Each structure stands twice: as structure tokens, then as C-alpha cells.
Amino acid sequence: MAESEQTVAVGDVSRGLVAVNDYVVGITRGEYFALTRWCRHSRGDLARGSIDADGCLVCPVHGARYDVRSGRAVDGPKVPGGGLIKRMMNRHPLERRPVDVEGETLRIR
Ligand code: FES
Fold first, then answer.
1. Which residues are within 8 A (CB) of 23 and not within 5 positions of it... i.e. 6 or more apart?
2. Cα 11 to middle of ligand 1, angstroms
């Protein structure tokens, strides 16, 4: 396995978000995703967050919402100035990594 590759069991991801080193792995709308684990606002641990009804990844700290397909914030943190903070966060969207399904294993490339 190349240094940058990391794996997680499909079954673990089917039960919720999973931390894999510096990535959060999950599934929304039938698609697996792997994104940078640390919220662009104040480094909240997105692996402790949730997926909302719109399929967005929600930060557990101040509620910023991310589009898992782009890594961009669709809503900023629920703090004063959240709109401005969102624009700053989107200067550096969460990194998205490809996820390969290999049987019962997901491989983050
Ligand atoms: S740390 Fe994620 S919204 Fe504040």
C-alpha cells in the first residue's frame, strides 16, 4: 500500500462517520466520500459530526455544513459573522480524496 493509501471497513462506514487518520469517511446518497477531517473554521473534528437531511456533513462544534462532493461550506458556523467566515473557509475547501470499494473494504487514495 502506498504511503498515502488508507483503508476502512465498509461495515464501519455504514454505521456512521469514521475517522481515518486525517480524513473523515462517510456515505451520503449512496456515495462514499473522504474529506479532510478538520473543520476549516476552528478544526472541529468532523468525524464526530453528522450527515443532515440534505446530505451535508455538519461540524459538531458550531454547525458549519459542507457539501461532501466539493468540500466547500454551504453554511458557515453558527456564530456572529458566520457568513464572512464561510467565505474565508471556502478559500481552502476541505480536500476530497477518491474512495475505491474493494469488496468489504474502502480504500482512500
Ligand atoms: S469548528 Fe466547525 S463550525 Fe466551528
1. 6, 34, 35, 36, 37, 97, 108
2. 28
